[in-house]
UniProtKB/TrEMBL annotation:
Pfam families: HTH_67 (PF21863). The lineage of its organism: Bacteria, Bacillati, Actinomycetota, Actinomycetes, Kitasatosporales. InterPro entries: HTH_67. This is SalK.
Length: 285
């Protein structure tokens, strides 16, 4: 039985994960990946997130990323590894994370005692992570921890993100939601990405979206207007709670006071990054 307040781990994850994710919206990433020959935004995303696993093929990327169309993945993987090795991509990613965080947070925050404290707490939390059945987390867990506190914090946030993400995929499978159904139901909560962003970045067509919506309506999870039914709301709630249960380890390891402090620090950094334009205004909704 958990000793933490309800959803404490989820709240902490939600404070840390967006700062990690800001890299994927950063022009710095395009610049650094372009410098090693990867110019296409989709190819850059697949390379950046998959590089920790080595020169894997499209099947592995599709399996571990879950909600991307395999046809889109196959356009870029494994060809990206002929352009730049995973090691070069990881180096470029870290340079992009460095410049992105410095731009979004500013020199004072980067050099602050609070950043060093947050890095220590986040790294301590990762000691409670587990590798089994978590391929993306396990791949990233094998990477060296950067020395500078803001990059160590970003690295730890990456580990915690992928640890929870791998668990969430297991929950989606248990709920019998395929990749597009998962996207549709998440967007219907009002917390997911905007439909146009999903279609533009995940490789699905509007027809795929409509077909998935029809399947969810047949299951009684979605209304004709595209909103979640009571059953759909309950399913999405259970998905998050199941993910919470499978992702409890790092936060139990850190302990209640540590989780609360890391959440507080993470929210402060995120507010600063958000105000600095870390995310497009129309990416969600």
């Amino acid at each position: 039985m958990s000793t933490l307040p309800p959803r404490a781990g989820r709240r902490c994850h939600n404070a840390l994960n967006p700062l990690h994710s800001s890299l994927y919206f950063s022009p710095d990433l395009g610049k650094e990946l372009g410098g090693v020959g990867i110019d296409d935004p989709a190819a850059a995303y697949f390379a950046t997130r998959a590089a920790a696993m080595g020169a894997v093929g499209a099947d592995t990327v599709t399996a571990t990323f879950y909600n991307f169309n395999h046809a889109l993945v196959s356009q870029h993987v494994p060809a990206i590894w002929d352009i730049a090795s995973p090691a070069k991509v990881l180096d470029a990613r870290l340079r992009a994370a460095d410049s992105t965080l410095r731009r979004l947070l500013g020199a004072e925050v980067i050099a602050s005692p609070e950043m060093a404290e947050a890095a220590r707490l986040a790294l301590r939390a990762t000691e409670g992570c587990t590798r089994h059945a978590r391929p993306l987390y396990a791949a990233h867990a094998g990477l060296p921890v950067p020395e500078e506190p803001h990059l160590a914090y970003w690295h730890a946030a990456t580990l915690l993100r992928e640890h929870r993400g791998d668990a969430h995929l297991a929950a989606l499978l248990a709920a019998d939601l395929d990749p597009v159904e998962a996207l549709v139901s998440h967007t219907a909560t009002g917390k997911g990405m905007a439909i146009r962003w999903i279609l533009a970045t995940r490789g699905w067509r509007r027809a795929d979206w409509e077909d998935a919506s029809a399947r969810l309506r047949e299951r009684g999870l979605l209304t004709a207007e595209g909103e979640l039914t009571d059953e759909g709301t309950a399913l999405r709630k259970e998905l998050e709670e199941a993910t919470d249960r499978m992702d409890l380890g790092p936060y139990e390891h850190l302990g209640g006071p540590g989780v609360a402090r890391l959440t507080e620090l993470g929210r402060g950094f995120l507010a600063t990054a958000w105000a600095a334009g870390a995310f497009p205004s129309d990416a969600t909704g």
